[in-house]
Amino acid sequence: MPPVTGATGTFTSTGVRTGLGVPALAHPLLAPAEWAGLADPGAPLHWVVLDVDSGPGVRPDPYCLAATARLRGAGVRVLGHLDTRNGTRPFAELIADAQRHLDWYRADGFLLERCPTGRASLPAVRRLTGTLRTLRDQAHIVLGHGTHPYPGYAENADQLVTFRGSWNDYRWSEAAEWTAHYPPDLFCHFVHGVPRGHLDEALRVARWQGAATVCFTERTDRGGRADPWEALPGYWDDLISRIGTGVSE
User: Fold this and answer.
1) What is the pLDDT of residues 161-197, one digit of tens each?
2) Rounded to the nearest 5°, which phi and psi values hold at 229?
3) What b/e string do you get for 53-81 counting C-beta neighbours within 10 Å, with b at 16 or more?
4) Per DSSP, what are the bridge partners of residue 191?
5) Measured CA angle at 29 (ends 27, 34), to 5 deg
6) What CA–CA distance (Å, rounded) separates 226 from 15?
7) Radius of gyration of the chain (CA)
8) Rounded distance, CA 191 to CA 234, Å?
9) Among the residues of 15-79, which ranges form H helices?
């Protein structure tokens, strides 16, 4: 593994605990056991995203209502999925979807999927996140960039997704230098195609790069033809155990 730039020396020994984010799952009707399992006590879950139909859907869904109620009862934060379409989606549509997430599912915050990364889009994203916080007090907002954005985005969200991609890319990746000025709980990494035998290595990469929220799966995107996040990984229990006990640096 090459040298990693980023929050390596500053934050890996501060005691920040790695936890799991679940960016997407199949509808609770199709994956009832997985949704129910997310409410089990002891899992180091930072949040779970609800995506009914590329957003909240057109009406309250009874299966999603039941699933999110169980998660809230277990103290798990539920985020509503908002697709910004790389900054092309109208502001009013995003706010309307956010309000539905709040009214129907009592969302604790939002994942802004396909969030822009460039400096020119920052004012629009700042306006959006500011408005979302007026709709929901203490909303937890995650910007789903999938790569390192312009540094100014770090001041406008609770977390940034700075890596989303394959294990082959992740194991040789480097954190942007500016991330060293922020704590690990600001950053999230989502990595697909991680073999079970490389979980320890993947967790070490996340810690060395200073990302406290992760999601790993052995599933792949099959060259962009599949969603690797629609199901929990087959080694979910093993991953929970490794995060709970920690991985040797």
Assistant:
1) 999 999 999 999 999 999 999 999 999 999 999 999 9
2) -100, 0
3) eebbbeeebeebeebbeebbeeebbbbbb
4) 165, 216
5) 70
6) 36
7) 17
8) 14
9) 32-37, 62-73
| Rounded-to-integer distance, Cα 225 and Cα 57, Å | 23
Q: How far apart are CA 154 and CA 187, in angstroms?
A: 9
Q: What are phi and psi of 69, to 5 degrees?
A: -65, -40
Euclidean distance between CA atoms 184 and 198, whole angstroms: 21
Residue with tokens 């979980």: 199
- Report whether 104 contacts 72 (CB < 8 A): no
For residues 97-136, b (16+ Cβ closer than 10 Å) or e, as one string?
bbbbbbebbebbbbbbbbbbbeeebbeebeebbeebeeeb
Identify the residue whose tokens are 């810690």. Answer: 207
The number of CA neighbours under 13 Å toward the Cβ of 149 is 30
- The 3-state DSSP class for residue 144 equals strand
Q: pLDDT tens across 46-56, in order?
A: 999 999 998 99
